[in-house]
Amino acid sequence: MKIKFLSITGIVVLLLSLLGCGSPKQPVSPGEGNISIVDDLNQTIVLAQPAKRIISLYSAHTENLIALGLGPEIIGVSTTESDPVAQNKPVFDYRADPEKVLAAQPDIVIIRPFIKQSYPDFIKTLEQANIKIVCLYPEKFEDFDSYIHKLAVLTGREQQAADRLAAFHNKLTEIADRTAKAPVKKQVYFESTATEYRTITPASTPGTVLNLAGAINVAADAQAIKTTGSIAAYGSERLLMKADEIDVFLAQRGPMNPGITVDAIKQRPGFDKIKAVRQEQVYIVDEKLVSSPTFRLAEGVEQLAKLIYPEVF
Amino acid sequence: MSSSSLAALLRRKQANVRIAGLILLVATVLFALAAVGFGRADISMVDAAAVIYGKLTGSQEAYSSIHAAQTAIIWDIRLPRILAAIAVGGGLAVAGVVFQALLMNPLADSYTMGVSTGAAFGASVAIYLNIFAQGGLPVTVFAFGGAVLTLLIVMSMARVKGYVSSANLVIAGIIVSSILSAAITMVKSLAGEQVSAIVTWLIGSLAAKSWEHVVYAWPLIMAACFLCYYYAGDLNILSLGDREARSLGINVSRLRTILLGAGALITAVCVAIGGIIGFVGLIVPHMVRMVTGSDNKALIPLCGLTGGLLLLTADTFGRSVGNIEIPVGVLTTLLGGPFFVYIFRIRNKTLG
């Protein structure tokens, strides 16, 4: 055994030294050479080495890059950042002129499909100037891992990504084990917007968060407004038809549903008939914690689980 | 033509207006009852009738067999919305008639004076503060305040040497309106990505109206409409021109102030409740005028009824067709424009 091992090592060393003599090329270490990923617009992005100068134009991307330890590599952020590390970074606005982005000479600019759809000229100008544009957005929860992996490949942080994802899934499993102990499954309604009382599609990120928190989505029959979107039409009448089944009423507060309060929900016409309103089980959750594709989704799941099943926490 | 035959003609005309009004009133009541049966939730007409009967007579047992949630849908959601639609539609149409006669401008409507822009500005500010200052400010009250303030500013601007002329009113309205539009745009841009709340309000929708809205709106709108009707005869004379009206002993400036106040109050209430619902105040008066002629005594009541009926139909259609509710403001604007073109063509044919 030992002899075999030694001989193999010897051969390898010999081969390597021969290679070294034959060509002056540096050995290929992981993290260099050709990096390539396919983004969510099916464009293949190829980099010679991991990106060192990154501009992120979406707060969730920024947060995830910081989570992978890329704080110093981020040279620009979007106008709406919540992560403290991103607060002092130069701000880039996709509604403004692309000149500022060009002047910064980033290795990659990470956007989401919404930006490309709403401001195509901004993106086109950057692409013509040979700036690498990466468009990513995990529509569904199950895409989260591959999305983080893509970010990691682009920046050479596969190891950190694997560690963070493992911790993330461990936390989710832990919460699922806890909520499984609850004596009764609770039925929850989740409001995405106050206008027209819209809810979420079961397959969307908040829909999955709701499932992971051990809740049953009352409005699982809701139809999506757009085929790929996360928002689903519901309306006051369908909602009130389920008045007796809703144990907990959750509403997200954020850009999609600004300024929502518990009192505002209680005062809506006819809502006093809803079980959750009668039993004071109406809660506001931060939209970022349940909708944004970041590692904080685990916190969102935990928060929801604690609101829905306080008896097992 | 002798005076007796003229009187007979006038009597016949009044009788015709009464009959038309009665038909419209009956139609409105029937439509309202039918609209109670429309909606996402499947509730039978019998149950709906039982709930309304029981609630009105105060007899709990009439609807005790019906599920509490269904009762809430009928009584707390559909009925207030139906009544709000009738009040807003009727109010906007009456305000349209009054403004068209007052400003002697067939293109004037309830929004010409900038009252609606004022209401929109008030609402935008309230929504903005609710989002960023965590206050529970009532948007409806702010919208109403904005409308009334705007009216006062426009009136004081238009008053030159103690006299308000219709040309000055239109100009002052346009000036104030454009300044406020700019202010609304500023509030929108300040709101950043949370702008959706403001935009949704501005579109104009009758969703989620409660009894509170109905209880405040109906008396105010009705009172202002009756005030307009009371002065309808004077308004007819006023449309001959200021000098003629004055020589017939009418205090033109006072009459104009009163009617402007009434029309603007109606508009303020309507906008505060439903946001900006376009074209109702423009189309309905033109439609009715084609049938009745331009006698304001006939126009005001008939337009009120027609407007209510029209908006009720549009809103019921918007809320019960398809998966997504269509805000009534979108519907009236989409259908209103082409319809206005059609009316314009017809009118020119009959005149030519």
Chain-averaged pLDDT of chain A: 87
Helical residues, percent of chain A: 40-55%
Total domain count of chain B: 1
N-to-C SSE string of chain A, H for helix and E for strand: HEEEHEHEHHEHHEEHEEEHEHHEHH
The strand line-up of the biggest sheet of chain B is 1-2
Helix content, binned percent of chain B:
over 70%
Round the Cα radius of gyration of chain B to an integer and report it. 21 Å
Show unreliable segments of chain A.
17-32
Main sheet: strand order of chain A: 4-3-5-6
The level-1 CATH class of the largest domain in chain A: Alpha Beta
The third-level CATH topology of chain B is ABC transporter involved in vitamin B12 uptake, BtuC
Which superfamily, in CATH terms, is the homologous superfamily of the largest domain in chain A? Nitrogenase molybdenum iron protein domain
Q: Largest beta sheet of chain A, briefly? A: 4 strands, parallel
CATH architecture of chain B: Orthogonal Bundle
Q: Beta-strand percentage of chain A?
A: 15-25%
